[in-house]
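Anyone able to model this chain together with PBG?
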Amino acid sequence: MWIRPRRNRSRPALRRLVRETRLGADDLVLPLFVQEGEDLETPIPSLPGHGRLSIDRAVARAREAAELDLPGVALFPVVPEAEKDPRGSAAAKPDGLLQRCVRALKQTLPDLLVITDVALDPYSSDGHDGVLRDGRIDNDETLPLLAAMAVSQAEAGADVVAPSDMMDGRVGAIREALDGSGFVDVAIGSYCTKYASAFYGPFRDALDSAPRSGDKKTYQMDPANAREALRELALDEAEGADWVMVKPGLVYADVIRLVREHTALPVAAYHVSGEYAMLRAAAEKGWLDYDACLLESLLSLRRAGADLIFSYGALDAARLLRAGRGGD
Ligand code: PBG
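re: yes, here you go
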């Protein structure tokens, strides 16, 4: 027995030297939920540690993120029911809640990336990412609305617009609209392979954005399919995406690996609301160590091939990493 893999594990410094994957604050993006009001944080019961934040509170939370060296935050607006309509018209309002929040963030923390979500669901009275016509999502009628939404976010100062709607052709439509309005430097972080997942539950609680009828299976991908991710990837590359995301993350690690092996673009993973809530719930019961399981989950996404990760645990992870956790 002269070959002993344990030898490389036998001392902390040696483990450090042969470690294949690293997790750092540089890899993490913190999602934030924004609502109207002042000095408000309304807890989201299914997403412990996160609340719906008024703009001033969102800026304060973003400052914490910047101080912990997180490169960016991703914003999701809570839209009052009275402002929702079938075409999500409020999405492109220059003085909308999201647009005001982007401006406030760029004014106070100009170097922190602001990533905005492009999809109609928070603004739609139907709770769908596209326009519903006779019970069906009309792909091509939705594209110009998404393009206008992205331009409006860019006008407010967004650094990256992130289409999460899964309409065909939306990356190209958004790129053309951004370039046509002079926003050639605004990047598109495409939710390239986004699955029709049950793990988005707490997110939909946060925004009250669950579909009012039907489900999202005609546009989000079938959880049974991996190969199909390569079709979405090819299209997003051809249409000009600057990064491609796999979502959810943990339960789609095989898809992260597949996409990683077929593209030179940065690959993002979304450690989604349900994946985070599971950890919190188990920790609340005393069944799991939240800190250790969070770091292991995020590291596993990096090992699967993700360059960057959206996670509700980003602040916690950055704090733990700063305190020296995450290695041995
Ligand atoms: C909106 C959107 C969703 C998520 C991100 N953007 C929800 C959905 O598609 O229903 C989910 C994120 C999460 O669960 O953390 N299109």
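The pocket of PBG is lined by residues 117, 119, 121, 129, 164-165, 200, 203-204, 272-273 (CB under 6 Å).
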